[in-house]
Amino acid sequence: MDSTIIALLVVVGLIAIVGIFLWATYNGLVTLNERVSEAWSDITVQLKRRADLIPNLIETVKGYATHEATVFDNVTRARAATVSPSALGSPAAAAAAEGQFQGAMKSLFAVAEAYPQLQANAGFLNLQGELTDTENKIMAARRFYNGGVRELNIKIKQFPATLFVRGLGFKEREFFEVADSASIQEPPQVKF
Fold first, then answer.
1. In whole angstroms, what is the distance from residue 41 CA to residue 184 CA?
2. The domain made up of 3-183 is a member of CATH 2.160.10.10
3. Which of 29, 73, 127, 145 is buried deepest, with most CB atoms within 10 A?
């Protein structure tokens, strides 16, 4: 074989290897990016579910504690903030709204603790159970989202992918981290 043909085959082979690498890297990034978007969607669904439970919980507690209007207003405002388009637009905004919501819920449950007849109300207990279940689902969705973000960010930062992925429109995603992480580690606790 002529040395020109060998050199040409080597060049074609290298181009094919680079092409396959680029193709596989791009497809991997698209997959990870979609998983992160899906996980964020799961978080927003659970936040909406929780927000839908809150008015029923407030009405149940209101029936027993009519003089606690400030607490109810704070919970209502915090609830609205967690499902507002600005809060659902980014993990940082959602985290800020989440911290405010957790503080308001602690106040609501503190009021509920003062009313033994409320603590025995089946509707309140059912709502509290659903809220706890939803909080657990939010924590799971947050872990899934953050895991996907971690995988995507690592792949974007790894060499040699880092040389070209930003040019293809891929960028690092931010984690869903709450400033006061202790406030969301556990669902709101109610002691009866």
1. 19
2. no
3. 145
